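Reading a protein record of the kind used here takes only a little practice. Each token is a code from a learned vocabulary of local backbone shapes. With that in mind, consider the following protein and its fold in token form:
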Amino acid sequence: MYEPIRTKSVHTPADHADDFPHRSREEELDIQLAGHLAALLAVTDELGIGEAGDHIAEQVARLRGAPPARHAGRTDAPASALHRRAHALAGRALVVAASRADTAVAILAAERMDAHTAALAAPAASARLVGAH
């Protein structure tokens, strides 16, 4: 009553599964971490924080094997929004660095999170002082 299936099923394993390259978990984490750091570098450069940007660029170069392209493309975003974005990116980098046991990047990311938290708190503290007079 039914004609037999003559084509291969999509569930059939490929004949040559080794024909395409596979990356290890470590390599995938390196790629992910380099991406988070490159995004953090872009925001850091936009904020004009040169020394921190240099440290981030060193880590991106170590992970990718080549120095990152740096371009301080300016946007009209307020500094507070940039600091919040940088804080979030540093947090993501910290999570990935911790999962791959990269102490240098974990410390750098934690320092950047602290710096951006302080930068966000500074305007609020000075506004309260000005209003107290």
